[in-house]
Amino acid sequence: MTLSNPNYVFRALADPTRRAIFEELTRRGEQTVHALTRYAGVSQPAVSKHLTVLKRARLVRHRRDGRETHYQAQSDALAPMINWLDNYGAFWRERFDRLEDLLQRMDHE
Amino acid sequence: MTLSNPNYVFRALADPTRRAIFEELTRRGEQTVHALTRYAGVSQPAVSKHLTVLKRARLVRHRRDGRETHYQAQSDALAPMINWLDNYGAFWRERFDRLEDLLQRMDHE
DNA sequence: GAGAACCATAACCAAACGGTTATGGTTTGT
DNA sequence: ACAAACCATAACCGTTTGGTTATGGTTCTC
What we know:
The structure is a homodimer. By secondary structure, the first copy, chain A, is an alpha+beta fold. In chain A, 61% of the residues lie in helices and 13% in strands. Chain A has a 3-stranded antiparallel sheet with strand order 1-3-2. In chain A, strand 2 (60-65) and strand 3 form a beta hairpin. The mean pLDDT of chain A is 87. Chain A binds a DNA duplex through helix 4.
């Protein structure tokens, strides 16, 4: 897996419409530009441009099929952001604490 | 802990200079605007404006001391971003895989 | 008390951004 | 073969962004 420039990832996800598109692709899986346009509440060209930005960050992949273009989320492209977050202790500690809690509660059931 | 608007957090960290400032504050701890300016490679007003954006996202706090203003990173303000990332499986899977690897290697030593 | 240091804000500017409408190229359906 | 559907790109536009220099308010230092 080739990591994309972290800057592209951070910038791509800074816009709420783009995050919404990415979330939608993750939730409902692969979708055409048409379907995403209905969802996103902006014009089709706007969606196409957002998809270009997401593509640059490798957060989506596309597959042409006739006149349709199907896009799908590529969530492992979040790696640069996750790696960056790894520098911030609270992150891991919080997660492990929660995990520990969970395991304890499971023991006592 | 009051969570700040996720949008502010994402936008604040979308800029590389701002990320650098935040990283520097995390690494080296509390610092004055002056020190950050020497580090950041842009003018002092530019740094002040970046700090304002980081403040809006609650990623930094400041403390006045005479003519100096000391800023410090508030890394638990990353929570909104981390929560958002929690929706993306690859994240956890990757981490647990790595953890599993580590534990296995520890067993065999 | 004068001058220097530190910082925030104002005023300004070019470039990037997020949106629009217009257009044209493929592909599909009839 | 024509019309419609799907999508990307172009052209355009107002706003935001990230930087600058200029300025002024506090607070130190001498």
